[in-house]
Design brief:
heterodimer, A: 538 residues, mainly alpha, Sodium/glucose cotransporter, 20 helices, 76% helix, B: 168 residues, two-stranded antiparallel ribbon, disordered N terminus, DUF485 domain-containing protein (chain B), transmembrane (chain B)
């Protein structure tokens, strides 16, 4: 039985890789080589295309398999995740998308650096962006390794290692040769595949219960072994007060983190105007909201159709709930339908990981080249010959940086192979919300924000977030920690967001109040006028 | 008519700033449509060889334009409309989300209360979060399209005309 479905999954996945490499070749041939082409695809995407690409960037395999799996195992508590991920988009839409599109050129540091005009501000924001991207990349690569171990049967350590290396190599090829144009089209293809797969499975689940959601939920509760508790919160996070506080901390990080993720922010530069940025965010919210509603049906469907215990036996974290459900819906193990559906889900999940890592790699190499490298030397004006040459050199640096980041994150992912993927993703969100969001919101909305405030708020969020994680049970002190033999877990919560996000805002305020120089009113006027009207926008 | 003041304060600046991220943005074509952007780029390309004595983009008049526009009644109105929608709406959805998360973790008994069939308070609240997110999105997009876009675009063109005149 296993040979068939694994071969089919491999064939489908190879087809996806072939298509994406085709897209990359096409994009590389069409490139004119300018910075605008490489970083933001010439800003020529339509809101619909960008909306799909944003959704593709946001919906990782962790949400497709992870959230549905959590629901299949813990019922309602899994649903809390998807609500946080979705509501976060209102912050992006209301406070960030249009204003960032109007004020920046390629990165988050552009927005802050344009108001502060200080090298150390740009360096701080660039460094924070790279940190967030690297954490997120490592999480996704670790996820890729464990996925393949699950799907391709060969759960051996070697298969995992080679998968992580292979995915790392592919993402570098996409980004270094195809830039934003290739990355965006890969996201769009993946988003269409993912939505298609989710819709097909949801229809099959609902059809299995003759369209009666009430029966579906009751059957899920029955087969979960928890009874009606399964449909209410508390199974996973309802333990002692520490785990409850931990969940609140995670909930805050989820809702505030999305607006600080560099690969999400850079997507808004790929459309021509702020209006188009808004419309792409609206498309993205529609797609992401619909997708999460379907994962809820799939999660409860998995519990109802195959039972929570079967899911737990297959994979303790629940990651196999959706593929197992697909096999059952297609006719069960051994049947043609079951084999095909299982292979399709495996291939879609893999495509998802590849597309997400490409997006994040591009964002981080852009930050390295445009924020860190470019601000470490004087930059001549873009219109002069020198300036054009230096912009081209910056793109070359970005391509090289993609290779460097690929090698570094692949290495880190191999070291961190046993770490819990969900907590790594939660950590990336917490760092994004602590280091990037305060400085961005202050820059856009606070008249008295100063250079010192900007630097303090970035480091005041970044350093506590990282220190608290090092001192948390994620790293030491428990059987599932990174260093199970040691115990220096002085901070009880796994997610630092509840403490480090307020600290980031507090330090930004404190730094501004204690500044020797008052805020520059002119820069604030320019930022405000540009942000709300788009005057002078790239 | 304070915009005229901005134009009147037209004078070449002194200090040359090389490290100006926004100046690059201006130079790379700021048009709404791509054609406008290409035109601007071509113009820049043609001019670039003779432009060795760099005109200062950061001149006093350039700064004045933004301060004058910021104080103009038209801009204040756009900003007021934006904030009047965004501030209460953000406060509302954040409060609703936090209340939901805290209720789910701190008061699971209330959330487990059955309403109808398999539906309990927690399910209704969770689906309610989805519904309100969609409604907020729709309301924001509509508000921006009907109440802000046109006025903001007018200010954009006026501002760019003023800065264009002082920069080039």
């Amino acid at each position: 039985m296993s040979v068939d479905q694994h071969t089919l999954a491999l064939v489908l996945f190879s087809a996806f890789v072939a298509v994406t490499l085709g897209i990359t070749t096409w994009a590389a041939r069409r490139r004119r080589g300018s910075a605008e082409d490489f970083y933001v695809g010439g800003r020529l995407f339509s809101p619909l295309e960008n909306g799909f690409a944003i959704a593709g960037d946001h919906m990782s395999a962790a949400s497709f398999l992870g959230i549905a799996g959590l629901i299949a195992l813990f019922g309602y508590d899994g649903l809390l995740y998807s609500v946080g991920f979705l509501v976060a988009w209102l912050i992006v839409l209301f406070l960030v998308a249009e204003l960032v599109r109007n004020c920046g050129r390629f990165t988050l540091a552009d927005v802050v650096g344009a108001r502060m005009r200080q090298r150390r501000v740009r360096l701080a924001v660039g460094a924070a962006s790279v940190t967030v991207s690297v954490l997120y990349l490592v999480a996704q690569l670790v996820g890729a390794g464990s996925l393949v171990a699950l799907f391709l049967g060969g759960a051996g350590a070697q298969a995992r290692t080679w998968t992580v290396i292979g995915v790392g190599a592919l993402m570098v090829v996409y980004v270094a040769f195809g830039g934003m144009r290739a990355t965006t089209w890969i996201q769009i293809v993946k988003a269409v595949l993912l939505m298609g797969g989710a819709i097909a499975l949801t229809v099959l689940v609902v059809a299995r219960f003759h369209g009666d959601i009430n029966t579906l939920l009751n059957t899920a509760a029955e087969h979960s072994g928890h009874g009606s508790d399964f449909l209410a919160p508390g199974l996973k996070y309802g333990g002692d007060w520490t785990s409850r506080l931990d969940f609140i901390s995670l909930g805050i990080a989820l809702v505030l983190g999305t607006a600080g993720l560099p690969h999400i922010l850079s997507r808004f530069y790929t459309v021509p105007t702020a209006r188009a940025a808004r419309r792409s965010a609206v498309w993205a919210i529609g797609l992401i909201g619909g997708f999460y509603l379907m994962t809820i049906v799939l999660g409860f469907g998995a519990a109802a159709v195959i039972g929570s215990d079967t899911v737990r036996v297959s994979n303790a974290a629940g990651n196999t709930a959706v593929p197992l459900l697909a096999r059952d819906l297609g006719g069960g193990a051994g049947s043609t339908g079951g084999t095909v559906l299982f292979a399709v889900v495996a291939a879609v999940a893999f495509a998802t990981i590849l597309a997400v890592v490409a997006g994040v790699t591009l964002a981080s190499s852009t930050s390295v080249a445009h924020d860190l490298y470019a601000s470490l030397r004087r930059r001549p004006r873009a219109t002069t010959k020198d300036g054009q040459r230096s912009a081209l050199r910056e793109v070359t640096v970005a391509r090289v940086a993609a290779v460097g980041i690929g090698v570094a994150t692949t290495g880190l992912a191999l070291l961190a192979q046993d770490l819990n993927v969900a907590s790594l993703v939660g950590l990336a969100f917490a760092v994004a919300a602590s280091a990037n969001l305060p400085v961005l919101l202050y820059t856009l909305f606070w008249r008295r924000f100063t250079t010192r405030g900007a630097v303090w708020s970035v480091y005041g969020g970044l350093i506590p977030a990282i220190v608290l994680v090092v001192l948390s049970p994620v790293v030491s002190g428990g059987p599932e920690s990174l260093l199970p033999g040691l115990d220096f877990a002085y901070f009880p919560l796994e997610n630092p967001g509840g403490v480090s996000i307020p600290l980031g805002f507090l330090m930004g305020w404190l730094g501004s109040v204690l500044s020797p120089k008052a805020a520059d009113e002119t820069r604030h006027a320019e930022t405000e006028v540009r942000a709300l009207t788009g005057a002078g926008a790239a | 008519m304070d915009k005229k003041d901005g134009r009147a304060a037209d004078e070449p600046g002194a200090a040359v700033r090389l490290d100006d991220p926004w100046y690059d943005a201006l130079a790379s074509g700021w048009g709404e449509s791509n054609e406008a952007g290409d035109e601007a780029r071509q113009r820049d390309d043609r001019q670039s060889p003779q432009e060795t004595p760099v005109p200062d983009p950061r001149s006093a008049s350039h700064d004045d334009v933004y301060r004058v526009v910021q104080k103009s009644a038209a801009f204040q109105e756009v900003r007021r409309r934006y904030r009047r929608f965004v501030v209460p709406a953000t406060a509302a959805f954040l409060a609703w989300y936090l209340a939901y998360v805290i209720a789910a973790t701190m008061a699971p008994d209330v959330m487990a209360h059955r309403v109808a069939g398999a539906l309990n308070v927690a399910m209704l609240a969770g689906l309610g979060q989805f519904v309100t997110t969609f409604l907020f999105t729709w309301a924001y997009a509509r508000h921006a399209r009907l109440r802000r876009d046109r006025a903001a675009l007018d200010i954009r063109w006026e501002t760019q005309e003023l800065t264009g005149r002082t920069d080039r």
